[in-house]
Amino acid sequence: MARDLAATLAWAETGTRLCASALSGLSEEEYGAASALPGWTRKHVVAHLAANAEAIGNLVRWARTGEETPMYASPQERAAGIERGSRLGADQLARWFTESAATLAAAMAELSDEAWRTEVVTAQGRTVPASEIPWMRSREVMVHAVDLATGLTFADLPDGFLRALREDIHAKRGRDAVPDVEGSPADVTAYLAGRPATGVTAADGGLPPALPPWL
Ligand code: ZN
Predict the structure, then answer these.
(1) Tens of pLDDT along 143-181?
(2) DSSP states of 160-173 as a string?
(3) For residue 48, how far is its CA from the centre of ligand 1 (angstroms)?
(4) Are residues 23 and 148 in contact, defined by beta-carbon separation less than 8 angstroms?
(5) 80-104, pLDDT tens digit by residue?
(6) 49 CA to middle of ligand 1, Å?
(7) What spacing in Å lies between the alpha carbon of 144 and ligand 1's midpoint?
(8) 9, 75, 99, 133: which has the fewest Cβ within 10 Å?
(9) What whole-number percentage of the chain has pLDDT above 90?
(10) How far is the centre of ligand 1, averaged over its atoms, from the C-alpha of 1 (Å)?
(11) Using the 8-state DSSP alphabet, how is residue 40 labeled?
(12) 165 touches 189 (CB < 8 A)
């Protein structure tokens, strides 16, 4: 495992900063423009990130108290929250993103060693130790910082994070389900994440098949 708690906590902070800088200075109209994710505006992405901070906060609370608090009440509730949030104004969304991220960071900073070892259940139904929580959050803020489509690319993300992400996606997708591809670490990671990746080639030198979206 190439990731530890200190690294993933730092990545969550880095990703939060990348999102905040991507969003700073965007007009209402630019907030409402298309993101890199099919069918989602930037507002959908920001609403998802803010709701995700709160949902992940539920897992932090679970770890701290031992009381089972799932991320989302249901997949429908998760989708409805994103849809509602996408209709907020840019200022409100920016505040929601900033405050929810700060609240989550503060809650994670207070967890004891014992709490980090508590088992919690993710929205996908996986049982994981709470120490996975900062990794889950760093994936969201890092990858969606690129999805905000304000000019950031995977090459702007830390090398260690990209390496950990490739390992994670290989493990989740199943190594056999993913063709071997060649390219820069950033492009290969983008490809594995189901994002547009130029400069990635398959073993035979041709274009690899596009992978389904991830996250
Ligand atoms: Zn996401």
Answers:
(1) 999 999 999 999 999 999 999 999 999 999 988 888 889
(2) HHHHHHHHHHHHHH
(3) 7
(4) yes
(5) 999 999 999 999 999 999 999 999 9
(6) 7
(7) 7
(8) 75
(9) 87
(10) 22
(11) -
(12) yes
Outline where DSSP puts E strands in 8-157: 119-121, 127-129
Residue 205 Cα to ligand 1 midpoint, Å, equals: 31
pLDDT for position 57: 98
pLDDT, mean over the chain: 95
pLDDT of residue 2: 45
Question: How do the domains of the chain map onto residue ranges?
Answer: 5-152, 159-215
For the record, the structure tokens of 135 come out as 């990794």
- Count of all residues that appear for the chain in the document: 215
Provide the phi-psi class of 190: left if phi over 0, else alpha when psi is between -120 and 50, else beta: alpha
Q: Are 205 and 179 in contact (CB under 8 A)?
A: no
Written as six digits, the tokens of 32 are 């409402």
Above 50 in pLDDT, residue 1?
no
Residues 6+ apart with CB under 8 A from 40: 34, 48, 86, 147
The dihedrals phi and psi of 119, each to the nearest 5 degrees, come to -85, 135
